[in-house]
Amino acid sequence: MAVTLRPQDKLRTPKPTNKPPRVKLPWPLNLYQTAIGKKWVMGLTGLGLIGFVVVHMIGNLHLYEGPVEVHEYAEALRDLGGHIIPRTYVLWLMRLGLVTMFGLHIHSAVTLTRMSGASNTRYESTRDYAAANFASRTMRWTGPIIALFLLYHLADLTWGWFDDDWVRGDPYGNADRSLSRIPVALFYIVANIALAVHLFHGVFSMFTSLGINSPKFNPMRRPIALAIAGLILLGNLSFPIMVQAGVIEEEVPLEQLLEQHDSAEEASP
Question: Please, are residues 32 and 25 in contact by the beta-carbon 8 Å criterion?
């Protein structure tokens, strides 16, 4: 008796697994051409970027102290290295390192996704299904939102492209004028919500990427990810809200405040 196979019963030709790279890099660079190497790069660069986001948020808290304190903090960053290294050199090295980490993080994430699709498997680990499913739906959106916001943030506050009243060396006043515009404040809020979601799932999966996978430790991953994402979200959202509420507001030009500050220091015994 002949048996007729239905289309879904026919054997499918399996998709090829990861194709060998066209150009094989020398050791140890060739480690990055493997899935494990890319996971490590994504995890380590993610850890570095998380550190930057935390430090950046803490530095921005100087906005609650006043324009002079923010100015002094910005000058301290430019003077990193003291008299041994020329002014702003260390700051620019840090910026280049940040750009490199950001680029590697994006590249490793994209290429890992392609490798996962080519092998017809998902880049997953033994983790909470709901969290993993939500991450797969949001990461593709939160990543581009963060990248666009970063470019706008630099163009707006660092380069002064969108503000005719932008003043070099006055981060407090520039931040006040920028976040006083409601569309900018709303964009800032949306971008930082996207950042918090991205951070939560990034931290949650980073432990597995770095090989930290233990039944004793795994239950702590969610609280740690939630704490880091929540801390960043609360801190960053406070800036546009407080600017809109008038708590952060430049009432006196920075130059005048600096003159008053210098006079007070000279008069003090």
Answer: yes
* Residues comprising the chain, all counted: 269
Stronger pLDDT, 114 or 153, i.e. the higher one: 153
Rounded to whole angstroms, the Cα distance separating 32 from 36 reads 8
Out of 1.20.1300, 1.20.120, 3.30.310, 2.30.320, select the CATH number for domain 37-254. 1.20.1300
Percentage of the residues of the chain whose pLDDT score is greater than 70: 81
Say whether pTM exceeds 0.85.
no
Dist. CA 229–CA 219, nearest whole Å = 17
Dump pLDDT digits (tens) for 115-135: 766 655 444 444 454 554 555
Q: Where are the domains of the chain?
A: 37-254
Mean pLDDT of 67-89: 91
The Cα–Cα gap between 236 and 244 comes to: 14
Whether residue 232 contacts residue 199, with contact meaning beta carbons closer than 8 Å, is answered with yes
DSSP one-letter string for 194-239: HHHHHHHHHHHHHHHHTT---TTTGGGHHHHHHHHHHHHHHHHHHH
